[in-house]
Design brief:
Low-confidence stretches: 270-292
Strand content: 15-25%
Helix content: 25-40%
CATH class: Alpha Beta
CATH topology: Metallo-beta-lactamase, Chain A
CATH architecture: 4-Layer Sandwich
Mean pLDDT: 88
Length: 292
């Protein structure tokens, strides 16, 4: 069984679980270690059973619990070198269990294949992912100012997609709490997707394979679930199960139904080359600032 559970998603914290019968991976650790443990316990998952944590980028709403959680349970961290270096100069300066990957590479963790790719955001080297198992594929596309062609191609054949619907543009413009400079950052090409932009993205890739879309990373002040869902409806998105992830509530477990195994990995990763699977993922973290 290949499944996704969003432990929580929003402006103040993001963390999700991707799992098969053989492998359990967290994507980001943006809540306190205690919160992550409690949310995992609510779905019957022992933190010590995790095979790794993949990090999209270094912003606090994606890594705030990473240090304590990994030190307590010894979970390996998977990150690209620039993100790892940034985190390593801070709270994780003496952490040893790093597994580095180059953004754009493909690697495997047990029976889950991970395809990484760049997305435009105001971080040192932000990444998004497609996870593939025998049953199908799950795409994660959050924290990006716009969707470049490469990102669209990477998620075009997924069965399930988590996509950012960060803000309603009108609510953001009218928000009196945020200075104009912050609004400009959010609206920029290295900021966050609006409801309308996310809806256009989903409409552009919707086809025979896409069965479920989870809307994530909603702003607490500048969005509401019903506005995000209405944007999807205005874009003509039908025949797809839609779910709004919540900051404070663990989502149901969403299962990817089996597809034809001979085509799943080929379709979601058309550029994969033979023998690349573990090229980057299993190398220990070894940068100059860690030596000695």
């Amino acid at each position: 069984m290949f499944s996704l559970t969003v432990l929580g998603s929003g402006s103040k914290g993001n963390c999700s679980l991707v799992a098969t019968s053989q492998c359990r991976l967290l994507l980001d650790a943006g809540f306190s270690a205690r919160q992550i443990v409690q949310r995992l316990a609510s779905i019957g998952v022992d933190p010590q059973s995790l095979d790794g944590i993949l990090i999209t980028h270094e912003h606090s709403d994606h890594v705030s619990g990473l240090n304590t959680f990994c030190r307590r349970f010894g979970v390996p961290i998977f990150a690209n070198p620039l993100t790892a270096e940034t985190l390593g100069h801070g709270v994780l300066d003496d952490w040893a269990s790093w597994n580095l990957f180059a953004t754009g590479s493909v690697f495997s963790i047990k029976d889950i294949e991970v395809q990484s790719f760049y997305v435009p955001h105001d971080a040192v080297d932000p990444a998004a992912f497609v996870f593939t198992a025998d049953e199908g594929s799950i795409g994660f596309l959050t924290d990006l100012g716009y969707a470049p062609k490469l990102a669209l191609e990477r998620v075009r054949h997924v069965d399930m997609l988590v996509v950012e619907t960060n803000h309603d543009e009108r609510m953001l413009q009218e928000d009196s709490k945020r200075p104009w400079s912050v609004k400009q950052r959010i609206l920029s090409r290295h900021g966050h997707l609006s409801n309308e932009a996310a809806a256009k993205l989903v409409a552009s890739i919707a086809g025979d394979r896409l069965r479920r879309v989870v809307l994530g990373h909603l702003s607490r002040d500048c969005n509401r679930p019903e506005l995000a869902l209405e944007a999807m409806q205005r874009a003509g998105i039908t025949g797809i199960d839609l779910h709004c992830a919540d900051q404070h509530t663990v989502s149901p477990g969403f299962t990817v139904l089996p597809a034809t195994q001979s085509t799943v990995r080929e379709q979601v990763n058309p550029v994969r080359t033979q023998g690349r699977c573990n090229e980057h993922a299993q190398h220990p973290f070894d940068l100059g600032w860690q030596a000695g």
